[in-house]
Amino acid sequence: MPFLDVGQEHKMYYETHGNPKGIPVVVLHGGPGGGLTRKALGLFQLKKWFVILYDQRGCGKSTPRLELKDNTTWHLVNDLETLRKHLKVEKWALMGGSWGTTLALTYASKHLDKVLAFILRGVCLFTQEENQWTMNKGYASEIYPENYKEFLKPLRKGTRRALKPYAKLLVNPKTRKAAIQPWTKWEHRLSSIEKQPFQEDPKSDEESAVLESHYYVNNAWITPELLLKTASRIKVPVLIVHGRYDMNCPVSSALLLKEAIPQARLSIPIAGHAMTERGIFKNLQKEIRYLNTELLYTN
User: Fold this and answer.
1) Residue-wise pLDDT tens digits, 242-268
2) Helix ranges restricted to H, 89-201
């Protein structure tokens, strides 16, 4: 299996698919901690694309698992550059979903000259409003109150701001176990408006809960202003697909990004957050076919 030493004792697992001479695209998974998904390969014509999948620090097959030391957004940006150079890719397209959109824009803040295009799904700008929407009472909790009640069970009664209390539970191996499933079930409930049964995966659920809370409580070591300022400098093609009823990342974030990149193509299907939802997947396929033609024409 291919592993790449990215420093600080971290080793990144990665895979390559498709045509090595095709248009290179790296897929930035969600979470943080979500791990790579090969379902993304179904979005691309592999005869025309060189698709790179990888597990970010601390999750999937990357090692050491669940390591929070030297695990910040800026470490992940450096990892991407290390991977690009290792694969001898001059420029690549960035495809990010949810947290992956945050990472794509943060990478671009330092390496915009290495980006051919952006394919962004479920935009996350790490704004205060986004965190309030998912974590605090009075937002998504009003749409799924019974699920939010279950989410709050590991916390003290009367808690209205869940992020910091949850982060304390999840960072400590002694208190982590009881908090993982409520956190994961709440996230699952917000991820799709289609009926998708919850399937427990102890390893993956633990990685998502621990790494997400670690990044969220630290505001991912970035600011929304940095991402929007970077976006305003983007001249390459940008495709944005964001579900109208996305309960994880409000559609207002996609509209903010579109304002910063007037030339971006924005599609808002009747769908939720998950890439696997029909409205999201079909729109991504359509936009990627357009981008394939655009890049072949301009290069």
Assistant:
1) 999 999 999 999 999 999 999 999 999
2) 99-111, 128-135, 145-151, 163-171, 176-191
